[in-house]
Amino acid sequence: MVLFAFLYLPIIVMVIFAFNKPSAVALSTFHGSNICSLPPAQIGNITVWNGFTTCWFSAGLHDPTYIPAIVVSLQIAAEAAVIATVLGLCAALALARMKPRLRAPFDSLVYLTLVVPEIVIAVASLIFFVQLRNSIHAFPDLGRVTILLGQVVFNASVAMLIIRARFVGMGDTLEEAAYDLGSGPIATFRQITLPRLMPAIVAAALLSFTFSFDDYVLPAFTNGTTNTWPIVLFSAVRFGLTPAVNALATIMLAATVLAVATTAVILRRSRAAGRDTARVLDTAIGLR
Amino acid sequence: MAAVTQPEATTTSPGARTRVARSFKPRYPTWLTSPSFIYYIIFFLGPMAILVAFSLATQQGFGGLSYGFNIAQYRLIFGSFYLDIFGRTLLMAGIGTVLTVLVGYPVAYWMARYLTTYKMLALLLIVVPFWTSFLIRTYALKIILDPNGYLAKDLGINILYTKYAIAVGLVYNYLPLFILPVFASLERMDWTLIEAATDLGARPFSAFREITLRLTLPGVVTGALLVFIPMTGEYIIPNILGGGTYEFVGNVIGDQFNSAQNEPFGSALSIGLMAALSVFVIVYIVVATKEERFGA
Predict the structure, then answer these.
(1) What is the value of ipTM here, to two decimals?
(2) A97–B26 C-beta distance less than 8 A
(3) Domain A66-231 is found in CATH 3.40.50.10320
(4) CA distances to A78, A79, A150, B25, B228 from A202, in Å
(5) Which of A145, B7, B250, B252 could form an SS bridge with B24, CB 3.0 to 4.6 Å?
């Protein structure tokens, strides 16, 4: 119980402080109508409670830097999730039943991408992309594309491990049966293998999306002039922010929890799908 | 192109009782690995190779450099200033890992052993913090630890911008990452073994030490390494909760590429960090294979 308090205290604090007013000193010198239009520099101390207001939610949703950054982050995360899952799926299918001798070099490469600290990958990618841009004209400048290219490395490895674990775990008896009954290789893949792998594929895509969306270090070095949500957040945390940030984070947390709850309720209607949800959850947190 | 190689035709001569052994195994062609293999070679090994080249290059004025085989940058790391930073990073990551194990193991044990109906809910509650931005959570910790804030003031805690705040941040952020795999290994435990041991006269604690701990130790070590590695490369937590007063190697590397513009030295530091980490990974692999041989 103490642990859950420890885990949730910061999140509760985040939500509560989304409703915090600017400090009394700041308000006494303020003459506008909307107290939530105060910039971070004039807001005073907001790490203490100054009073209740809901105006940060609308201020956050109309912010000219936060909202575009969130949109960019969502787009990159979606692209990273799709590319990483496809790469991971292809590799997982072939690797799971490959000879260990052939598999070993690929496996060590995958583990290496997971073991190298992110800050190292970030600076290495930075100099690599800059050099590539200097020597190949068609290569894009630092920006959205380079963020995506860098993030897919780690995410593809995670996706591959998740999908492969499930693929190895489910055995090949049903595929064998499909062949015996005269089904071709592509039909077998579409009708037997793919549906059974679906929970792992969904889990891999969701996890890639989350990792990419929340990633700060790699984009911070390979972004050029593009701003992602974590990059905007980091500079806000370092150089001053308003509770509008808390308000946006609260909205996003609420949306995620709501989405998960709705999916769970809808899927519970059919038992098989319910089992699939449980499996997605299990896979997502690394239990299976 | 076919996605799966066709199975060999099975021929059973009519009348023969014995089933002909088939060498069939549904296999996917090896070329399916090539997209990700090529991707890794370009976008992972490529950057790593250039990192090595940069670390051996010589700085020419501000921003320019010439490639070569110059180990001056590596010599610089072995000065007491940077060795101190390496030492403190490994020490803090070590302390953070130990604290995470001490807090996380009992929780995973409690969840696996005593929760039944609420097991799924407890797991979900551990995962949910992951859905809030890492940066927001760290910022919220900053609010909590702020010496002018309510909590820290009333409890008399004044640790913001010190190594203690960093330790709290490390444990807070990496705890779920440790609990989940350890919980998974505790879930596979056969609790009847404990019953058998206590029936045979073992005291609960020695039963725990001799059976539970021994069986779950591989999971604990893996989980510990899983949090130790990213803790060593940590960049955000020392920056926000340490306020730049207590830098990790990751922060120094970042500085070389941001403000100092000394890319060769930053590259050498990166290689140094990987070398330091690889020692732990190699020890882990050696121990893990030894354990496997003894069937633990």
Answers:
(1) 0.87
(2) yes
(3) no
(4) 13, 14, 22, 26, 28
(5) B7
The whole-number pLDDT of residue B296 equals 43
Question: What is the CA angle A271-A274-A279, rounded to 5?
Answer: 130
A87 contact residues in B (CB cutoff 8 A): 35-36, 39
Q: Do A116 and B48 touch (CB under 8 A)?
A: yes
Q: What is the pLDDT of residue A287?
A: 46
Q: Give chain B positions within 8 Å (CB) of A237.
A: 135, 138-139, 142, 240
Cβ–Cβ of B26/A284 closer than 8 Å?
A: no
State whether B50 and A131 contact (CB < 8 Å). Answer: yes
Angle between helices B249-258 and B80-114 (to 10 degrees): 130
pTM: 0.86
pLDDT for the residue A47: 78
- Candidate from A106, A234, A253 with C-beta closest to B131: A253
Q: For each of the domains in chain B, give its residue range(s) and CATH number, in order of start.
A: 75-251+273-293 (1.10.3720.10)
Spatial distance between the Cα atoms of B285 and B289, rounded to a whole number of angstroms? 6
Mutate to test the interface with A, among B11, B22, B36 (most CBs of A within 10 A): B36
Which chain B residues are closer than 8 Å to A115 by Cβ? 229, 277, 281
Cα angle for residues A59, A63, A68 (degrees, 5° grid) = 145
Interface test with B, best of A128, A147, A158, A211 (most B CBs within 10 A): A128
Helix H segments across chain B? Answer: 34-40, 46-55, 72-77, 80-114, 119-127, 134-145, 150-155, 163-187, 192-199, 204-207, 213-232, 236-241, 249-258, 263-293
Cβ within 8 Å, pair B180-A48? no
Kindly report the nearest CA distance between residue B208 and chain A, in angstroms: 22
* Structure token pair of residue B135: 């940066």
> Hey, are the CB atoms on B180 and A287 less than 8 Å from each other?
yes
- Cite the residue boundaries of each domain of chain A with CATH code 1.10.3720.10: 66-231
- pLDDT for the residue B15: 45
Taking CA–CA distances from B7, the nearest residue in chain A reads: A179
On whether the CB atoms of residues A165 and A288 are closer than 8 A, the answer is yes
Give the pLDDT score at A222.
95
Identify the segments of chain A with pLDDT beneath 70.
264, 266-288
Distance CA A33, CA B79 (A): 58
The answer to whether A47 contacts B5, with C-beta atoms less than 8 Å apart, is no
Report the residue of chain A nearest B148, measured CA to CA.
A48
Alpha carbon dihedral B154, B159, B160, B165, in 10-degree steps, equals -120
Residue ranges, chain B, pLDDT below 70: 1-26, 61-63, 292-296
pLDDT at site A280: 59
CA A144-A148-A149 angle, to 5 degrees, is 120
DSSP string of B23-38, one letter each residue: -------GGGGHHHHH
